[in-house]
Amino acid sequence: MSNERKFVYDGMRFPFILIVTCFAAWGIAANMTDPLVKVFSKIFSMSTLQASFVQFSYYGAYFCLALPAAFINRRYSYKTGVLVGLGCAIAGAFLFYPASQSMTFGFFLLALFTLAGGLSILETSANPFVISMGPEGNATRRLNFAQAFNPVGTNIGVFLSAALILPQLNPATPEERAAMAPAALQAIQADELSAVMVPYVGFAFVLLAIWVAIFLTRMPTEREAVAQGPRDVNFGATLKRLLANRHYSFGVIAQFFNVAAQTCVWTFTIQYVIEAIGGDEAQAGWYLQASLLVFLVSRFVMVWLMGFLRPAALLGVMAIGGSALCLYAMANPGISGVWAIVMISACLSLMFPTIYGIALHGLGEDTKFGAAGLVMAILGGALLPLVHGAVMDARGAAFSYIVPALCFLVVAAFALFDLRSRQRRHAQPE
Fold first, then answer.
1. In this structure, are residues 95 and 111 in contact, taking their beta carbons and an 8 Å threshold?
2. Are the C-beta atoms of residues 126 and 371 closer than 8 Å to each other?
3. Angle, vertex CA 356, rays to CA 242 and CA 269, nearest 5
4. Is 229 left (phi over 0), alpha (psi -120 to 50) or beta?
5. How far is CA 321 from CA 172, 260, 325, 347, 384, in A?
6. 236 vs 131: CA distance, rounded Å
7. Mind telling me which residue stretches traverse the membrane in this protein (predicted)?
8. Highest mean pLDDT: which of 237-241, 315-319, 374-378, 393-397?
9. Side-chain half-sphere of 263: how many Cα atoms within 13 Å?
10. Between 20 and 30 A from 16 (CA), which of 47, 88, 168, 338?
């Protein structure tokens, strides 16, 4: 097999497998965190908007730490970036223990920020690392394959929340909690916050095992150094080139709204289900689990479809489908609307890696800082859930899905832009 037809270069197969475990790991963290908006709103009797600062802290950390990760990757290597990211995430996960003892919302936000900051460095390093492990011609498909293991982690994360956190919530209503004696309320909150802490501390030990395995494994960096050019950092010139690249810049915007849509859909699924068909948090949590199972299966289906269809064309179809499903759920807040929310995950399944791969295509030596920009775009997951939460407080869970519906339309516009750009390039004479 010629070098250009290989999926992964020789000597990179085992490192590729190890990096793929990182994709699953940050999926676990992200989707253990999604239900925490509902969890903390109940434990601390907060509004949905106030509790949405969980996602603001989590995805805000992605924005803050992505650029430092690019400097680490540029100055040293992707492997160094992966190890630094894992180390920071381990520290953040362990912080959940003192947070549970302090019983303050702010301490949990600090733990989430530290955990997500590490995952930001990890993701900024791992995504382009996977791209560099094989030929550029199949880079988007290879990244989609690696990202296909991310929903394995997301399903584990939702399962851990559904099995270990949500069932431990006391059924007392906000009014009943307000009427309790301080000591009785504190005892209930202590039990609930301990349930939040356990899966995160367990997750810290899993990340530690991955860190050791990657540290002990030789990961060839010769191709990385050759492909990306010298390691000297000229940030100003790089930023100027990236901003002038309309294709890349639109990709960053599309990624912002894609992550916003994904975070809104999954974060508020439980609230939508309870409003639409009733039940409690634990029962509604299983619909979120179903969403992630759809996401898992669909990710592998999308990788297969990319063997026959252009990634951008598939992206456009799925983005329009996601917007249509949101609008249907808004108009039909019952069991059919619930299943529409679940099926949105099929549309989401290919979006992040496809936008990522398309936007980075052809960047050459600017890839490492370009990758940071695309991870910084995860800021959409910090800001738009606040809007979604505010709309939900004002107009209800069903109407609030107008927010992801509009986000999907931006992703569809990027897909169309890429397709037209390729058509213009192919139409130009040699």
1. yes
2. no
3. 130
4. left
5. 39, 16, 6, 7, 20
6. 24
7. 12-33, 53-73, 80-97, 103-122, 143-166, 197-216, 250-274, 286-305, 312-331, 337-359, 371-392, 398-417
8. 315-319
9. 33
10. 88
Buried b (16+ CB within 10 A) or exposed e, 47-63: ebbbbbbbbbbbbbbbb
What is the distance between the alpha carbons of residues 298 and 5, in angstroms, rounded to a whole number? 25
Which pair of structure tokens corresponds to residue 374? 């695309």
User: Residues, the chain, total?
Assistant: 430
pLDDT for 427: 52
Contact of 3 with 136, CB cutoff 8 Å: no
CA distances from 33 to 153, 184, 290 (A): 12, 27, 17
Residue 33 has a CB neighbour count (10 Å cut-off) of 24
Neighbours of 231 (CB within 10 A): 12
CB burial class (10 A; 0-12, 13-18, 19+) of residue 248?
buried
What is the per-residue pLDDT for 233?
57
Element of type H or E holding 165 = none
Could you tell me the pLDDT band of residue 345, with boundaries at 50, 70 and 90?
very high
Domains and their CATH numbers in the chain: 3-427 (1.20.1250.20)
DSSP string, 48-87: HHHHTHHHHHHHHHHHHHHHHHHHHHHHS-HHHHHHHHHH
How many Å apart are CA 344 and CA 78, to the nearest integer? 33
**CA-based torsion, 81, 86, 89, 91: positive or negative:** negative
Helices (H), 46-181: 48-51, 53-75, 78-94, 96-102, 105-132, 139-147, 150-160, 174-179
Q: CA 139 → CA 109, 129, 232, 346, 374, distances in Å?
A: 36, 10, 25, 22, 16
- Supply the pTM of this predicted model: 0.75
The label of the residue with tokens 């989430």 reads: 112
Report phi then psi at 164, rounded to 5. -110, -25
Q: What pLDDT does residue 313 have? A: 93
**Rounded CA gap, 138 and 298, in Å?**
19
Distance CA 42, CA 115 (A): 23
DSSP SS3 for 232: coil
pLDDT digits (tens, 9 = 90+) for 172-206: 888 888 888 989 999 998 999 999 999 999 999 99
- Residue that is written with structure tokens 């252009």 in the block: 310
